[in-house]
Amino acid sequence: DKSWMDKKRNTREYFEGVKKFVEFASLTACNGRIPCPCNRCVHGKLFLTKVVRDHLYSYGILTNYRPWVFHGESWLATTPTKGGSMFISNVVKLSYDVALFIQDDDDEDMD
Q1: What is the pTM of this model?
Q2: I need a labelling partner for 27 at 20 to 30 A (CA). Which of 7, 67, 80, 108 fits?
Q3: What is the separation of C-alpha 48 from the centre of its chain, rounded to a whole number of angstroms?
Q4: What is the pLDDT of residue 65?
């Protein structure tokens, strides 16, 4: 049930939903990091799950983010699939590697 995503952020339903989402998303974490689906990051950044949780509390979740394809759900199903989780895990790992590469490149430009 993803109805919590449409609730106001200060409601019990929203807080409980975020908690369950983070638990679910942590199954596909790469080095403890997942893409952040908050309204500010829009999946563009990888953070530790506790940071994502805090972002979701502070900024809210993208309400149209259904299914949770960047966190293990299949495009075709509303439940996680092993293949989907493996694919998403590989995409997250690749994204993480690219982010580290860009960060290293930026660090060299500063020298």
Answers
A1: 0.68
A2: 7
A3: 9
A4: 92
